[in-house]
Structure of SsrA-binding protein:
Amino acid sequence: MGKEQGVKVIASNRKARHDYAILDTYEAGIALVGTEVKSLRLGRASLVDAFATVDDGEVWLRNLYIPEYVQGSWTNHESRRTRKLLLHRSEIQRLIGKTKEGGLTLVPLQLYFSDGKVKVELALARGKKSHDKRQDMAKRDAQREISRVMGRRAKGIA
């Protein structure tokens, strides 16, 4: 059996793009135990309440839900334990500077397998206010209407 190739998405946080303005993204590895990887291979995880923090020069992913592995024994893992993220030192220093700047947070966007290794796409984000969300929805609706009209015009209907 050879190594897996490509990217297989396990879980994505679709609400994050709605609630936050994404400024920058990073790809990070995660320090996991064996039963967590087996549970992820079954495609079971949730990023709903997950967030990342920088403590003592290390980045930690908190509240990521990976359910216990069904066939696991006493070696099974806790489902919501804090997991260490693996980033380059320069990226961690940049994140420390940006998060101390104020108003910025680290939000996981998706969890996936990349060439057999579990990775997380981490976003440096700023929370949106309700009027920002309304503006985004209005832009999306306007863009949808424009594409609808252009599609009709291309077909010769209107």
User: Anything to note?
Assistant: The first strand starts at residue 7 and ends at 12. The chain has a mean pLDDT of 84. Residues 129-158 form one domain.
